[in-house]
Design a protein that fits this description.
321 residues, mainly beta, 5-stranded antiparallel beta sheet, 1 helix, globular, disordered N terminus
Length: 321
């Protein structure tokens, strides 16, 4: 139905007991219990769970109490999408809608992220050119817009992530070849552009991830135009100014990637980055230089994946992807 349907559609709870995947074609989210010895997956009771129209991405709060799914709602003319919120059963992993769910969103919401404190959630709305911010009710999981939300983006935002300190949010603007950076007000959740934002990106930046130390940001550039010309995509690396949130390219950036990279993640130790390559059916692995942030392919990379891999996540123990 849509070539990039699950670009950041995979989420692990903090305890790594369960994993959730957004399914855009049947408008559901699947939940799986994880075998901690083997990494094998088993559907949780009641899975898959109903969502809104075109479930695109899923995020879990850091306490593993709540899961949130953005529903793009492709209709003509374009209309607002929604965010479905769920309480997670800590024993079984089953999902139950939170009060007020689904919550009305901007037009074409493609990505949702929860800050590391579990206080706020952010949604990138491509067609609306906005970033929505929500306060999360710690008891119920319900969402309430933060002051000033939605925040004007103006750069066709596709995906959003929050750094591990909760100070900054970063947005990949796939149609403008830029990365936007925002400071997060720790009291209100409001967003303010960081100095120099938006920053120059690669060709078609579509996914952004920050390493667990908050020093480096990595962006998957799908580079469809380059692919058509016989050139693979790339991965951009940036050093984050810990005071301002500004981004500076790391040495050697951008780094060679596979054919049409769709998603990037960093493992919880901050040693490795992994990227899905949609058109070449592979997963690229990179070792991160802890001093410079530069990327070097790991032995055996890229690994052969299944047909059209779109999203990748590493569990909090660093054992499984």
């Amino acid at each position: 139905m849509f070539a990039i349907a699950a670009i950041i559609g995979l989420a692990w709870p903090l305890q790594a007991q369960f994993v959730y995947v957004a399914n855009d074609v049947d408008n559901t989210v699947s939940g799986y219990a994880i075998d901690r010895k083997t990494g094998a997956l088993k559907p949780v009771p009641g899975s898959p769970f109903a969502t809104g129209s075109v479930a695109f991405t899923v995020a879990v709060d850091p306490t593993a109490q709540f899961a949130y799914v953005v529903n793009v709602s492709f209709v003509n003319p374009p209309s607002p999408g929604t965010v479905s919120g769920y309480s997670i059963d800590r024993k079984t992993g089953a999902l139950t809608p939170v009060p007020g769910s689904p919550f009305v969103e901007g037009v074409w919401p493609f990505s949702v992220a929860v800050d590391p404190t579990g206080q706020f959630a952010y949604v990138a709305n491509l067609f609306s050119n906005t970033i929505s911010g929500y306060a999360i009710d710690g008891k119920t999981g319900a969402l309430t817009p933060v002051p000033g939300s939605p925040f004007a983006e103006g750069n066709d935002p596709f995906s959003v992530t929050v750094d591990p300190t909760g100070q900054f949010a970063y947005v990949a603007n796939s149609l403008r070849n830029t990365i936007s950076g925002y400071s997060i007000d720790r009291k209100t959740g409001a967003l303010t552009p960081v100095p120099g934002s938006p920053f120059a990106g690669g060709d078609g930046p579509i996914s952004v991830a920050v390493d667990p130390t908050g020093q480096f940001a990595y962006v998957a550039n799908e580079s469809i135009k380059n692919y058509s010309a016989g050139r693979p995509g790339t991965v951009s690396g940036y050093r984050i100014d810990r005071k301002t949130g500004a981004l500076t390219p790391v040495p050697g950036s951008p780094f060679a990637g596979g054919d049409v990279p769709r998603s990037v993640t960093v493992d919880p130790t901050g040693q490795f980055a992994y990227v899905t390559n949609d058109y070449s059916n592979t997963i690229s692995g990179y070792r991160i230089d802890r001093k410079t942030g530069a990327l070097t392919p790991v032995p055996g990379s890229p690994s052969v994946g299944d047909g059209g891999p779109l999203s990748v996540a590493v569990d909090p123990t660093g054992q499984f992807a």
